[in-house]
Amino acid sequence: MDFITAIILGIVEGLTEFIPVSSTGHMILTAKVLGYDDQTAIMKTFEIVIQLGAILAIAIVYWNRILNLLGWSRSESLNKKAPRKKLNLIHVFLGIAPALLVAFFARDFIKSLFHAQTVLFALVAGGIFMIFAEWYNKNKVQVTSHDLDELTYKQALLIGVYQIISVLWPGFSRSGSTISGGMLSGVSYKASADFSFLIAIPIMCAASGYELLDSYPYFTSDTIGVFLAGFIVSFVVAYFVVLAFMKLIQKIRLTHFAIYRFVLAAVFWLFIMH
User: Fold this and answer.
1) Quick check: helix, strand or coil at residue 267?
2) Which of 85, 172, 190, 194 could disulfide-link 126, Cβ–Cβ 3.0 to 4.6 Å?
3) At what angle do helices 3-16 and 224-247 cross, to 10 degrees?
4) Where are the domains of the chain?
5) 3-class SS at 145?
6) CA distance 99 to 101
């Protein structure tokens, strides 16, 4: 892998990790276009590294909320406790536990699904699911949680259960399943997105950390420069993408992302897979 490829993949990861279009799907499809086998050990290690760059970006964006969850206020000394907001670590645990359990016990099965055709079907299915969730949230359900601090334990758990879909089906999109799951459970679009981004930090750290146990031998003097370039690019791009998404969230609906997913799947099916 050269630096240009590392930068391209870092950009793709940063652009897609936290919006509902499936970063995994985009990485698989991009690797195919570039002529790389994304299932090789070196590529999987690189993908873990750039994913960690995206995680760092979201952690910085939500730094104040993370400190509040831990019982500390950003504006006060770390020696003084600050009042907790209503959202607490139990919500986070309920939001990540179902997916982590499934990922742990079905790891080998999930890895067997990482190929382009599976991703294309997941892009379409996930898009349909997102359109339905948006319609249902608007017409059939009473929104009871308009911001993070109104989120109930039941809603956090339901979001965690919906997240299982993205774990078992590469290309479905973790953020797409969690945001949609929140909206189907009576959570507002913005609060669902906030919670989706927040629980991404522990679940992605756990998944990446677990994979690094097998991948650390590939950090060598020959690869470290390329890995670092991808990490930095992914971090910078993801940081600005999340800020832009949260700023424009009332203008960019799930349906818009769903249409993009349909177009992407169709283009790859017509021009790349045939």
Assistant:
1) helix
2) 172
3) 30
4) 3-271
5) strand
6) 5
Q: Which of 230, 176, 201 is nearest to 63 (CA)?
A: 201
- In this predicted model, what pLDDT tens digit does every residue of 134-154 receive, in sequence order? 999 999 989 999 999 999 999
Over residues 250-270, the mean pLDDT reads 93
CA nearest neighbour of 18 among 194, 212, 218: 194
Spatial CB neighbours of 173, under 8 Å, sequence gap ≥ 6: 20, 21, 22, 23, 25, 122, 126, 166
What is the identity of the amino acid at 131?
I
* Confidence band of 44 (pLDDT split at 50, 70, 90): confident
Average per-residue pLDDT in the chain? 89
For residue 187, the cross-strand partners are 145
Residue 193 is encoded by which pair of tokens? 């997105």
Q: Which two tokens stand for residue 34?
A: 């570039």
User: Exposed, middle or buried: residue 83 (CB in 10 Å: 0-12, 13-18, 19+)?
Assistant: exposed
Q: How far is CA 52 from CA 11, 174, 227, in A?
A: 13, 16, 11
